[in-house]
Amino acid sequence: MIPYRKSDAGVGVPEDSGGAYASAFGYLDDDAHLETALKDATELLRIFEGLGIRWICVTAGSPYYNPHMQRPALFPPSDGYLPPEDPLRGVARQIAGTAILKKAFPQMAIVGSAYSYLQEWLPNVGQYNVRHGLTDFVGLGRMVLSYPQMPADVLAGRPLQRKLVCRTFSDCTTGPRLGLVSGCYPLDPFYVGHPDAQQLKTLRESLIPGR
């Protein structure tokens, strides 16, 4: 998709491109055209396959220009914008795109992403997608910062430690960009008491209209 910016209401809106992005790599103008938008990625993977590259992680968008696509979250980056769509739509879009590429390249080891927003439901959705051949692996990003033991707990059949499940507050990604210490401020006791925690909280609350 094209870059997004924050509107006066704080919600992300597409930049007025005047059609300038129509020929961009993997340009997606509408979810109904997802398979068409993936033609560029398909051609790239075909080249990779010819080079013997088999391990592929599938993601989408840019963390700087349209982070709601790459990291679906209810709480946006403190220097970003409120999500312009239900974050579940972003999760579903990446799962669907990954499935299309996996079907086209069954011999490749495909890693799907954007699962952290699912929180407690992550293991269930991940298991379904792997079991039905929609992806080979479930890649975890933000979730590993707050709950690195999740894969071990799931594979061992242990109950999830709910207090460690990532709630996608986005502090872990915005802190470093603001020159602050990187960490899981909402859930890790060390960062909860860190001096930078209040600064991040203030920035996050400033995104809510009316405050």
How would you characterize this protein structure?
- The mean pLDDT is 90.
- The protein has ten helices and five strands, in the order ββααβααβαβααααα.
- It has one domain.
- Strand 4 (109-112), helix 5 and strand 5 form a beta-alpha-beta unit.
- It has helices at residues 34-37, 39-50, 67-70, 87-104, 122-131, 142-146, 150-156, 171-177, 189-192, 196-205, and strands at residues 4-6, 12-14, 55-57, 109-112, 137-138.
- The chain is mainly α.
- It is globular and about 50 Å long.
Radius of gyration: 18 Å
* Average pLDDT taken over every residue: 90
The string of secondary-structure elements, in order, is EEHHEHHEHEHHHHH
Q: How many strand units?
A: 5
The biggest sheet amounts to: 3 strands, parallel
User: How do the strands line up in the largest sheet?
Assistant: 3-4-5
Shape: globular
Query: SS-based structural class?
Result: mainly alpha
Low-confidence spans? none
Number of domains: 1
Question: Percentage of helical residues?
Answer: 25-40%
